[in-house]
Amino acid sequence: MQGESEVVVLRLGHRPGRDDRMTTHIGLTARALGADRALLVGDASQSETTVRDITTRFGGPFDVEVVDSYRDIIRDWAGTVVHLTMYGERVQDVEEDIRAAHAEGPVLVVVGAEKVPFEVYDYADFNVGVTNQPHSEVAALSVFLDRLFEGRELEREWEDAEREVIPMETGKRVEEVE
Ligand SMILES: C[S@@+](CC[C@H](N)C(=O)[O-])C[C@H]1O[C@@H](n2cnc3c(N)ncnc32)[C@H](O)[C@@H]1O
Predict the structure, then answer these.
(1) Do residues 170 and 19 touch, judged by C-beta distance below 8 A?
(2) Which of 26, 31, 81, 178 has the most CB atoms less than 10 A away?
(3) Which residues participate in S-adenosyl-L-methionine binding (predicted)?
(4) Which ranges of 33-105 would DSSP assign to H, the alpha helix?
(5) Is 84 in the pocket of ligand 1 (CB under 6 A)?
(6) For 47, phi and psi rounded to 5 degrees?
């Protein structure tokens, strides 16, 4: 988020066709809940386009990019690598240490699709479970980002939006931004 060290979401293991919707939702969730960028590994250009379109319409800043491989990104990351996995340490036990690390520098948040290669567990500074039950990368990412930012992401301002949703008790209102 603006004024803080960068938070980047790295989505591994995208399977074209099967994972299109899930990978798109990873990008949209990263954007909506305070991350600065999403990196989508593999043939995920359809998801990239959708996330870019939403950012154009509803504002940013947020960047999304398709990349060929994850290995160098994780290995060369000049900050903290957090891998979300049901096998990891409990988020409630490590969130404070991760926030302290984020105060010092950028955080890379890695989420998988199918089986994640073991080297990712090795490279990660933190392997983190959002519960130790199997569920979804979108759910894990949402809870993790909210814990990382302690709710600040809900108050963020959006820049250069074409449209703005006006919150209301009932009904839908979307206004063009001047
Ligand atoms: C459908 S799961 C695949 C799980 C797979 N068995 C594995 O090797 O991790 C896809 C992704 O969701 C995320 N995920 C699922 N459950 C999670 C949990 N309880 N805590 C954190 N992340 C989770 C992980 O990032 C995982 O790579």
Answers:
(1) no
(2) 26
(3) 84, 112-116
(4) 45-58, 71-75, 91-104
(5) yes
(6) -65, -40
